[in-house]
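Sample intake sheet
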Amino acid sequence: MHAVAPVLSSGNLSIVASRTFPDMIATRFSVALHILLLIADDSDGDSTSARLAWSIGTNPVVVRRIAGQLSRAGLISVQRGPGGASLSRPAAQITLRDVWRAIHPEKEKLLGIHKKTNLECAVGRVVPELLQRRFDQAEAALMADFSRTTIAQLAEGLGEREQRAVAE
């Protein structure tokens, strides 16, 4: 399934396919992590949406939308103007699970199940429940891992990669 965006073309409204929905879910999370890593690494106090968007390679509007979600979740503080954003608590106290839940509400499942199976079919009757149990187990394992990983730990990886790049 594709997300669609209306586009005006020669006065006519047309539909243009863009990214798939799963890509958008994964992208919002990675952009949120990128934002937090930039803010955590901000030594020059320039965590504005324009600066963050430049690093991420996206539009400042996208950054502001995701930063708003992070702010509402209490992960960052945002002020208009040159101050930009700052972490609301130490990076070592922000887990990937915190970020995931800020971007994806509890009610939103990582892996969805198709809903309109044929109840007259022996397989169709049981597939949703069978898959849901397995998907719930997979999501629980992922969230457990996300709960053990912090922004500070990811930031350590930034320093290691930067040192290797300079050495090469």
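Comment: The chain is about 55% helix and 15% strand. The chain has one domain: 20-167.
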